[in-house]
Amino acid sequence: MSVNGGEEQRELVLERVRELCERAETLEGLQREIVELMKRELEGYDWVGFYMLDGEDETMLELGPFAGAATEHVRIPVSEGICGAAVATGETLVIDDVRADPRYLSCSIETKSEIVVPVRVKGKIVGEIDIDSHTAAAFGPADRALVEECARLVGEWTEKRDELG
Q: 159, 156, 85, 160: which is closest to 115 by C-alpha?
């Protein structure tokens, strides 16, 4: 069950993300604007952040831009947690009840559900978008499609920048 306010709102957010990709100058700047937009505009997106693979140690994820409460999980081994599992499997993970998933690394007592979507550049996973909700089963198929498209757009933006740089 999606709690975020409907298809029209998701479409508006996706259009805005596309616009951000057109004018972004840095990856960090693009990520920051995306997380702030999603948290502000989508109900139930209570914590939105990027974790990126450490360029010097690809067994570790490092916290990038995020919107929401501070987290102690600034570095996560890819062998741990739902975030690590998404990178290890290369798949989107939608967790309706984080307390029922033994992989969950508790960040907030308020978190009830989570979606994690890998970001790929030229087919290789380089990071992920992680979203937590204070509502159980907050992320439905439309949310999955939205976050997967945002992850694809970030990967595409990065590919274009790599080719220019």
A: 85
pTM of the model: 0.93
Tell which CATH classification among 3.40.50.2000, 3.90.170.10, 2.30.40.10, 3.30.450.40 matches the domain 7-164: 3.30.450.40
In whole angstroms, what is the distance from residue 128 CA to residue 99 CA?
21
The half-sphere exposure of 118 on its side-chain side, counting CA atoms within 13 A, is 19
pLDDT digit string (tens) for 57-83?
999 999 999 999 999 999 999 999 999
Distance CA 161, CA 165 (A): 6
Q: How far apart are CA 163 and CA 141, in angstroms?
A: 33
Q: What would the pLDDT profile of 4-35 be if each residue is shown by its tens digit?
A: 568 899 999 999 999 999 999 999 999 999 99
